[in-house]
Design goal:
Distance between the termini: 13 Å
Oligomer: single chain
Number of domains: 1
Structural class: alpha+beta
Number of helices: 6
Strand content: over 45%
Order of helices and strands: HHHEEEEEEHHEEHEEEE
Radius of gyration: 17 Å
Helix content: 10-25%
């Protein structure tokens, strides 16, 4: 799976801020599933919250961890924006730094088009047939319980309090395994720490295989704010901008 497509799965989510997968395994060595009725209650709370979800913004850190052949950690930080209007969905991921050095990039999704703008080389890349990833892009931000059940086999691993700025939020830990076997070839499972009353994730862990994991933390989450930046879902190009399609 190309790194750009991995970001589609992660944008939002896409993931837990910690030293690495070993720490995650130590924290949740064999977390038992919560009772089925608890899971059903969480999904119903998500159904209610999703009906009232319009916009969200958050700061993020995406950590990509490779453990084979040697340990390597790649860190990206920035801000992410989501908007849902009726059946339309938009996302903007504004990366500010890469491994703590300025490295601006913008990923946008809207109207079935997934684009990457790299101002350093003044280039826009459009990824064809990106609309098939929309349900995964929405993961954890505005997705209803019905949305999740349609795409994933879900296990409730219980609850955990997560800090969002100065606020402590009680989240539900949901383990998701894709129903689509083609997705499972690249993404073995996803674990999200979700606030069911806002339909947002504060943590996510995406396992792309035994040696590749994407971990993220979302903070300063704002839901249904009166306004979001005008450039949240776009970027500024010029006459020299190069365009390509993959």
């Amino acid at each position: 799976m190309r790194p750009e497509i991995k970001l589609v799965f992660a944008a939002f989510f896409a993931l837990l801020l910690m030293p690495g997968l070993a720490a995650f395994a130590a924290q949740h060595p064999s977390a038992p599933a919560a009772p089925e009725n608890d899971k059903d209650k969480v999904l119903e709370r998500l159904n209610i919250a999703a009906r009232n979800f319009h916009t969200a913004s958050a700061d993020f850190e995406f950590d990509t961890i490779e453990t084979d052949p040697i340990y390597d950690k790649d860190v990206q930080t920035g801000a992410v924006y989501y908007e849902r209007k009726d059946n339309s969905f938009q996302m903007g991921v504004h990366i500010a730094a890469h491994d703590h050095k300025p490295s601006p990039k913008v990923y946008t999704y809207g109207n079935g088009a997934f684009k990457l703008f790299e101002p350093g080389i003044d280039q826009v890349t459009t990824f064809a047939k990106a609309n098939r990833f929309e349900s995964y892009v929405m993961l954890g931000f505005g997705a209803s319980g019905k949305d999740l059940e349609a795409m994933w086999n879900i296990k409730d691993l219980g609850s955990e309090k997560i800090e969002d700025g100065k606020t402590s939020v009680k989240t539900e830990i949901l383990e998701l395994v894709a129903k689509d076997p083609e997705v499972r070839k690249n993404l073995s499972k996803v674990t999200i720490w979700v606030d069911p009353d806002r339909a947002v994730s504060l943590k996510q862990v995406l396992n792309f295989g035994s040696s590749n994991t994407r971990i993220s933390l979302y903070s300063n989450i704002k839901v249904n704010q009166k306004s979001i930046p005008g450039d949240a879902f776009t970027f500024k190009t010029d006459r020299q901008t190069q365009y390509r399609t993959q």
